[in-house]
Sequence to fold (266 residues):
Amino acid sequence: MKRKIYFLLALTLAIDSVAMAAPEGEGAEKAMESGVLPPLAADMLVILGLVMGVISLMVAAYVWAGLRQTNEAVAKFSKLNSEVRSLRQKVETLERLMPDDLSSLGSAASSGPVPAVPDAKPMEKSIWQAFVDDFNKLAKSMDVPKALEACDRFVQTKKLFLLICLEPAAMDGNVPTPKFAEVDGVAMSAFWAWKSTENDGRFAVVPNPLHPYDKTSHDTGGLKETFASNFEDGVYSKVEVKLPAIFRREENRWLVEQPGLIRLER
Fold:
């Protein structure tokens, strides 16, 4: 508010100075003829008025630039504040659903960026818990010779949708929106989606346990955008789902509604 007042004062002073410096036709001539102002003094007054006008305009321009910078800073602060509120909501949601697992993971739970969580009601744990328990039992037996056959049976029994991530870094405006697509083969899939019994268009999503978790899958396979984990480096051969990711299917689009939480073991 003070900057706006200063700007108006400077602009007013500039206008007055220019008006004072400008010749006033017959009035100015009569003043010089009558001897009120000597010609030299009148010229000096005109020059002084012009200088004051230029300085005032410069001050007005400076104040105006300051106003614009202030407005831009306020806009950036407002955007940052909104992002912080969104992040806080996301963390509170994860803590509410799985507080013990998050505390045990510690700082490693933030090893990768997590998608923004829309303002949606979380899927109740009782809905997906049986599916996740069965998945974790399967995931512990991936070192047996017929692991692929076991996964095929699991996918068919649970009627799962098989997905891969085509563009992990895709954006929709300022919101991370990884792009997923359905595939046919279990071996080539990276995610398994189980349809909620609530028939609300949402799915509990887990990673394919056949594939080891390494830096390539973490960085380019869409896993870090979908799950928080304890990944650091190297190769992890076992995965345990603590919290499935929640996807929403809209026509042919698969959207991450809620990120998941997994624990990796070598």
